[in-house]
From TrEMBL:
UniProt GO molecular function: tRNA-specific adenosine-34 deaminase activity; zinc ion binding
HAMAP family (UniProt xref): tRNA_aden_deaminase
Protein name: tRNA-specific adenosine deaminase
Source organism of this protein record: Cerasicoccus arenae
Cofactor section: Zn(2+)
Subunit structure: Homodimer.
Example GO biological process: tRNA wobble adenosine to inosine editing
General function of this protein: Catalyzes the deamination of adenosine to inosine at the wobble position 34 of tRNA(Arg2).
Family: Belongs to the cytidine and deoxycytidylate deaminase family.
Keywords: Hydrolase, Metal-binding, tRNA processing, Zinc
Catalysed reactions, as listed in the record: adenosine(34) in tRNA + H2O + H(+) = inosine(34) in tRNA + NH4(+)
Cofactor binding note of this UniProt entry: Binds 1 zinc ion per subunit.
Length: 189
């Protein structure tokens, strides 16, 4: 019977990156966010990672933990923003820049505005749920008195491949997981 149980963990076939400490550019911080996304996959979560930069240093690392915490707000960006606020000792993150592997959803776009982040840089645009350009431009709301800068496209192909491969392999896994059950049922009749 145990053989028919679907495996809980889908091994991540992608290695982590080794960003050069010498070049603290967009690539560097997005590669750190990518590595967080790998950690998410290894924890059996949708592979999305986030890093917050302050004064050229990564001060907060986080990955999506919705399943583990059973908390719909446990997106990588939300967790990273909380960590950064704890680090800075202030809810205002005016001098901070958020790097995230996928365009923020409505919740995370809202949190980025409420945290008064200087800038959000994301890798993969999300035309279905992205609220920093994909579906809506939350940061362009005319009544906002905070200006949030948004850029995208850093490490886009690599981050997209990771997310797409995760869902592709998940589908294969759940399809295969049903095969033994089907055979068991046949044997009972
Ligand atoms: Zn989100």
């Amino acid at each position: 019977m145990e053989d028919s149980q679907p495996r809980a963990l889908l091994p991540c076939p992608y290695p982590k990156l080794f960003p050069s400490q010498l070049n603290r550019d967009d690539q560097f911080f997005m590669q750190l966010a990518y590595n967080q996304a790998i950690d998410a996959w290894r924890a059996d979560e949708t592979p999305i990672g986030a890093v917050i930069e302050f004064n050229g240093e990564p001060i907060a690392h986080a990955f999506n933990r919705v399943d583990a915490t059973k908390d719909p707000t446990a997106h990588a960006e939300m967790l990273a923003i909380t960590k950064a606020a704890n680090f800075i000792g202030d809810w205002r993150l005016n001098e901070c820049r958020l790097y995230v592997t996928k365009e923020p959803c409505p919740m995370c776009a809202g949190a980025s505005i409420m945290a008064r982040l200087k800038e959000v840089v994301f890798a993969v645009p999300d035309p279905k749920m992205g609220y920093l350009g994909g579906v809506l431009e939350a940061h362009a709301t005319p009544s906002l008195n905070h200006r949030l800068n948004v850029r995208s496209g850093i490490l886009e192909d690599q981050c997209r491949e990771l997310i797409q491969a995760y869902f592709r392999l998940k589908r294969v896994q759940s399809k295969n997981a049903h095969v033994p059950n089907a055979i068991d049922e046949d044997q009972l009749t």
